[in-house]
């Protein structure tokens, strides 16, 4: 169930990337005053270690992304932060309050939108917001949230008749109705179409701009890259990396990578491979032919080259010396997805155990 509470304007700026250790507190510090502190958090369910050792901080006004595969321990972490799970060890602090020992005051400052929030089918949008507002001492005006989240046309629509995107908007509104300073949003764009996802991202930015600090649990690297000031990657219950999305992305790829489109296949691809700055060369459309017992590999016209700092000019000059001018050169910007895959594998590879 969503829970929530006041806001203050804030700005955020990215902190530098620093590698995480697996057994010590967070090493990537927020650029603003920390409003959330998690240190050495551990949570087990019987023999199952859901969270082994998680530490991080969230600065006021930041959007912090919490990334990880299914079962990594993300939801358990944010539930402990919200006082919904009792930790076995470690400490958690939200604006100086302890959600583990005294969760009630935390609910006045922390809004939570957890996965798959469901409401009674017949409850209308306006009724749901008024009901939730009644739980708080200083709630936000439901009408203000209806406008902020673009729910004007659905005020009197029953929950069961809302589209997936409208349900998500309502669940965000419910997380914010207590006028929280901090909001936890767990997989809020899962199941939405691309247009609805983009609209939801705009909303999250508007919420952040209104002064709310956001913890965003997500599987989507494009979402994290677009929205988050910093991210932490959790794997098997531990923080294995943290930093800015772009810093983490750069860490995932060493060297420079670019794609070349040639006018015609290159006969002498070996001369490119022989360049000292080239570390990796592949061709998307290479062909091998055998003629008179001789095997010949044709490079094709689509090459992807990775190498050191000078690899791009080195390759262009080498081609030019043979009278070849590429039709197109496209440098490849490293992505957070590349870094994530390098760290923990594809998001779909692991399932909850
Ligand atoms: N109530 C519970 N009882 C037993 N095991 C649980 C319980 N809740 C979570 N787990 C297990 O703890 C581990 C961490 O779960 P958690 O939901 O925190 O991961 P997650 O990273 O949020 O995953 P997902 O992305 O799939 O939501 C998983 O192996 C999960 O199966």
Automatic annotation (TrEMBL):
It is a peripheral membrane protein. GO terms for biological process: response to antibiotic. Residues 36-261 form the ABC transporter domain. Residues 1-32 have a biased composition (Low complexity). Residues 1-35 are annotated as: Disordered. This is ABC transporter ATP-binding protein. It is found in: Cell membrane. It comes from Ornithinimicrobium ciconiae. PROSITE patterns: ABC_TRANSPORTER_1, ABC_TRANSPORTER_2. PANTHER family: ABC TRANSPORTER ATP-BINDING PROTEIN. SMART domains: AAA (SM00382). Keywords: Antibiotic resistance, ATP-binding, Cell membrane, Membrane, Nucleotide-binding, Translocase, Transport. The keyword Cell membrane applies. Signal peptide: none annotated. GO terms for molecular function: ATP binding; ATP hydrolysis activity. GO terms for cellular component: plasma membrane. It comes from the Bacteria. InterPro entries: AAA+_ATPase, ABC_transporter-like_ATP-bd, ABC_transporter-like_CS, ABC_transporter_ATP-binding, P-loop_NTPase. The keyword Nucleotide-binding applies.
């Amino acid at each position: 169930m969503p829970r929530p509470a006041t806001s203050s304007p804030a700005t955020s700026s990215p902190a530098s990337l620093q590698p995480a250790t697996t057994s010590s507190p967070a090493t990537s510090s927020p650029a603003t005053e920390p409003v959330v502190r998690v240190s050495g958090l551990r949570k087990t369910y019987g023999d199952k270690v859901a969270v082994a050792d998680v530490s991080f901080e969230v600065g006021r006004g930041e959007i912090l992304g919490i990334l990880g595969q299914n079962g990594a321990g993300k939801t358990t972490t944010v539930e402990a932060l919200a006082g919904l799970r009792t930790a076995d060890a470690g400490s958690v602090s939200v604006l100086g309050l302890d959600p583990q020992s005294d969760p009630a005051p935390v609910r006045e400052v922390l809004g939570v939108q957890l996965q798959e929030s469901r409401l009674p089918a017949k409850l209308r949008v306006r009724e749901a917001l008024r009901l939730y507002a009644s739980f708080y001492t200083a709630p936000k005006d439901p009408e203000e949230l209806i406008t902020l989240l673009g729910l004007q046309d659905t005020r009197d629509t029953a929950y069961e008749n809302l589209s997936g995107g409208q349900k998500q908007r309502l669940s965000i509104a419910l997380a914010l109705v207590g006028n929280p300073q901090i909001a936890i949003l767990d997989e809020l764009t899962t199941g939405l179409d691309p247009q609805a996802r983009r609209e939801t991202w705009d909303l999250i930015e508007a919420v952040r701009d209104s002064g709310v600090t956001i913890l965003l649990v997500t599987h989507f690297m494009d979402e994290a890259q677009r929205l988050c000031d910093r991210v932490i990657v959790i794997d098997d219950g531990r923080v294995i990396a943290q930093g800015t999305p772009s810093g983490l992305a750069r860490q995932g790829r060493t060297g420079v990578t670019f794609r070349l489109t040639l006018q015609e296949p290159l006969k002498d691809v070996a001369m490119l491979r022989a360049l000292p700055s080239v570390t990796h060369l592949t061709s998307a459309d290479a062909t091998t032919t055998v003629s008179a017992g001789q095997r010949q590999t044709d490079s094709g016209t689509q090459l992807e080259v990775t190498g050191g700092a000078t690899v791009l000019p080195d390759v262009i000059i080498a081609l030019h010396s043979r009278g070849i001018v590429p039709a197109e050169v496209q440098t490849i910007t490293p992505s957070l997805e590349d870094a994530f895959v390098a760290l923990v594998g594809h998001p779909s590879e692991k399932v909850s155990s």
